[in-house]
Amino acid sequence: MHPVIFKISFVEARSYYLLWASALLIFVFWTRRRAEKLWDMDDDDVTSVLLWVYCAGVLGSYAASVAERLPLYLSGGLSLKMTLRGLSSGGGMLAGGLVGIWRLKKCRIGIEDFAEAAAIPAAAMLGVGRIGCFMEGCCAGVGKHYAPAPWWAVHLHFDPAGLYRYPSQLMESLAALTMLILLLLVERFVRRVRGGGSAAVVFPLFMALYGLYRLIFDHFRELPGSRWIWLLASFAGLLWLAFSVIRLFALRRR
């Protein structure tokens, strides 16, 4: 693990922030390109929406991360420095999503079409960002002492000798990148079936798959996130997906 890439005097470049900043930039620029190229959205409106989503996502992820760790800090189980460090993907998605819906309505952009444009870049963002979590050592999996070390486990830079962890960050990154490939294939099929109609499928599928992943595997994390967020995301994604599939079949029969 390499939490610090380089340090010059008081300037410190942390791999966590570098990779998450890169992941967010991938999300913003790829979503912008897809929205303009595939859905013919106005450049200025799309840029405005993405700027609001970007700012709300960063603030929401930071606020949710602090809120999750605050009880541990108050009980003395976590230092103030660790409490104020890190981001929460759930808080970021929730804040960014709510602000994005508000801004889309204000700019009169179709929510379903924009969601389709953002789904695949969102999976790429998580795939890259979680590598930053791994290099930092945050969002760590549960640990146990082993002798010898199992092949699948990881030893973080702050762990005592003999303690090995479930690689939660790497597994989540792998899951997100797998979803990225699946979503690209589904989108290709849906665009053929949909023709000129509009029915969001890729985004609700992403919501359902990622929410289910977090529901199943979050208990392997040392500090699991709020499970109700992922339960809600999975439920909403599955309902939206079912509704969209019905609409797709209706479009195909026309």
Explained architecture:
The structure is a single chain. The longest helix has 32 residues, at 43-74. This protein is 69% helix and 6% strand. β1 and β2 form a beta hairpin. The strands form 2 sheets. It has a two-stranded antiparallel ribbon. It has a two-stranded antiparallel sheet with strand order 3-4. The chain is globular, with a radius of gyration of 20 Å. It has 8 helices and 4 strands; from the N terminus they run ββαααααββααα.
What is the residue-averaged pLDDT?
A: 84
The counted number of beta strands is 4
Structural class determined from secondary elements: mainly alpha
Regarding quaternary structure, how should these chains be classified?
Answer: single chain
Low-confidence stretches: none
Global outline: globular
The secondary-structure element order is EEHHHHHEEHHH
**C-alpha termini separation:** 55 Å
Strand content is 5-15%
Can you list the strand order of the major beta sheet? 1-2
The helix tally amounts to 8
Radius of gyration: 20 Å
Proportion of residues in helical segments: 55-70%
Major sheet: 2 strands, antiparallel
